[in-house]
Amino acid sequence: xxxxxxxxxxxxxxxxxxxxxxxxxxxxxxxxxxxxxxxxxxxxxxxxxxxxxxxxxxxxxxxxxxxxxxxxxxxxxxxxxxxxxxxxxxxxxxxxxxxxxxxxxxxxxxxxxxxxxxxxxxxxxxxxxxxxxxxxxxxxxxxxxxxxxxxxxxxxxxxxxxxxxxxxxxxxxxx
Length: 175
Hints:
Blueprint: H1 2-18, E1 23-24, H2 26-44, H3 59-66, E2 68-70, E3 76-78, H4 99-112, E4 120-121, E5 130-131, H5 151-173
Antiparallel strand pairs: 1-4, 2-3, 4-5
Helix pairs in contact: 2-4, 4-5
């Protein structure tokens, strides 16, 4: 996960420095991008004897899974029909990556990259990022008071929030 976090940090800084219209939205960034970063690790990570809990995701595992080969010049190329399950592949437990794991992963990302929780964007020029300061409770509740010593409190807060909104939202769409 550390490689993905380093990539996310670099990508965030690059976007601010190079895109005058960079926008970091609550939905697209916090609720889609961060869990999306964790999905390949959980879906393709090999849970072998050397990493049974977290799984190990390597370039070779991804290349084998998608039929990608490394050419002599170092470039990657897709080779039709060469997708395969990597050698010595170990089965994942059912429901291994669920909503709770996704929220926990998002909290881990935000702890390692605090700016990943920023919502806002550049103001028409590069390096002009302004973070939205949303205060819904008049300061009665904020992340500094939330004691980010573990992901459980924040995860439970998110579940409470979505648990109160989701049934109504699903009822309106007819699900």
